[in-house]
TrEMBL record, chain A:
Annotated protein name in UniProt: STAS/SEC14 domain-containing protein
Domain DUF7793: 16-120
Domain of life: Bacteria
A Pfam family the protein falls into: DUF7793
UniProtKB/TrEMBL annotation, chain B:
SUPFAM superfamilies cross-referenced by the UniProt entry: EAL domain-like (SSF141868), Nucleotide cyclase (SSF55073)
The protein, known as: Diguanylate phosphodiesterase
Sequence ranges assigned to domain GGDEF in this UniProt record: 113-244
Domain HAMP: 11-59
Pfam families, A to Z: EAL, GGDEF, HAMP
UniProt-listed GO biological process terms: signal transduction
Organism encoding this protein: Cryobacterium zongtaii
Keyword tags: Membrane, Transmembrane, Transmembrane helix
Keyword Transmembrane helix appears in the UniProt entry: yes
Amino acid sequence: MGPVAADGAKETLETVDGILHLRWQPGAHIQIEDAHLAMAKVNDACGNERRGMLVDMAAVGSVSREARSVWSIPCSASRIALLGKSPVDRVLANFFLGVHIPPCPTKFFTSRSEAMKWLTAGV
Amino acid sequence: MSSGDDADDPRLQQLVEGVVRLAAGDLDARIEPSDLRDDIDAVITGVNLLAEELSYIYSNLEQQVSDRTAMLRQTQAELEQMAKTDDLTGLANRTLLNEQINEAILASTDSGKPPAVLVLDVDSFKAVNDALGHGAGDAVLIEVARRLKRAVRAVDTVARLGGDEFAILIIEATEEEVLNIAHRASAQLQDSVQVGTETVWAMASIGVRIGTPGHPAESLIRDADIAMYQAKAHGRNNIQLFHPDMLDSVRERSRITAELRNAVAGGELALRYQPVVELASGTVIGFEALLRWHHPLRGLIMPDSFIPIAEETGLILELGRWVLHEGVAQLRRWSETEPELTDFCLHINLSAAELLRRDLLEDVRETLARNHVAPPRLVLEITETVLMSKGTAEEQVLGELRDLGVGLQIDDFGTGYSSISYLRTLPADTVKVDRSLIQDMASDPQQQKFVAAILQLIYSAGLKAIVEGIETAEQAILLQTMGCLYGQGYFYDRPLPPEMVLGRLRSLAHRQ
């Protein structure tokens, strides 16, 4: 499956080797409706199966509190690896992990290969 | 990751400015991070996120406080509603009625029409409760509430004061309108109430108090209550409009009640003994103990003036206990003085309320034993109406008194509504024929026949008859010719002080 990006969407979603890849556009300011839209796409892509998901959040502009809280709702993802590279990404990721309770094992990575290893280990 | 010379970085100044604004309480203040996404941007992002969290926590807290406050207000309103509503009928209770009367009084200063209050007491409600149980009683009260609501206008308030007592607050009405509503309420209660398979009536005695400007709320209810009691005294199921004279009689009654309470302890009560004689020989067969009150200021007060009040207030129990103790003790004192003169009985009146006194049986037994008086020497006189109630607690007590061996006598026979057939099964051995039956006997041949028939009826039932109120020789002769054996009255003796009783027993008959 190739990247899925609806008109005006702030993210793309694709499945590679059974792992979902959610990539937020650089500089995107993620609001609650963006989060809902992305989650619907994730659930849709998974069907009845639960899959690991890599979220590429490097260069995300901001994530609103309400948008973060959407990801506390259980979805079809069985594990979520948050991938960033800058100190800003780390702060954003940890606010999500610290303030909200993720519905499945969720971890922040700065290395894509480490993230993929962790996701694959959980399959 | 670093941008190099941090000290010169303008973002640090922006960060300081942002933190100052946040500290000043502007939780919407945000600091714009750069595209470098370095450590300084991470700190800026962290501060932004913390500000967002703080803002969320604040607004969440405010929301929670406002939700809880609303919940508390709602609960308080519900509690107030509960505290002011009668559970059974859903009507206003006394508290709410008082509030509404006060509001109506305030509002009436402009209109010049002060509120009026009706107090309604369901007649004979106790009988419904006693006979059919409290469930039936409650059903009757609910029906009464429903009917009263039909009788009033939308602006009026129907309340339940407690028990079988209701009240209606009427506002902005003329005297004529108030009385119309009172009559409508009374009319609503004339129809019977069906409780299961039973049919009962729940008519009411109604007191009406029409307020005057400046009239306080509490006296409106009190006055309506007094008028309601007047309605009860006027034979129930009627309406009485309050008049200030009613207050005087209430004050008189409460004065008597207070003084009577002290009379027992203060030794102001005394017994007089009226002989019961065998008409043919004039021989005394017994004495009826009659209560007298020697008031320190008002002098001698006869029982007619205080017994009804004592019965209403429950003081009758204390009076009855005193009469029993004093009367039986007097029997013992006479026996101690004249041991051979024991061939007579002591008659003591027992009120209906006393029959339900829990310790009556034990008290009678102990009092007789303590004074070494044989039970048959005590005759308890009970009014006809009490004896007529079959299958009641009263009937059971009477049976137990009989088992104890004391004599039972029907008092005031001919004044109640005796069932003739029941006369045969009465738990009594003597019947006292009321004085009213022989009053005009001498001049009225028809009445003579009637008295003769009553005496015959009593004998046929296997009972002894004593006629009271014999005042003339003519009455005494007539009664003897009718075969009446026993009697009492001024013609034979007036009630005697205890010290004259033995002399009377020793003397021959005064009159024959």
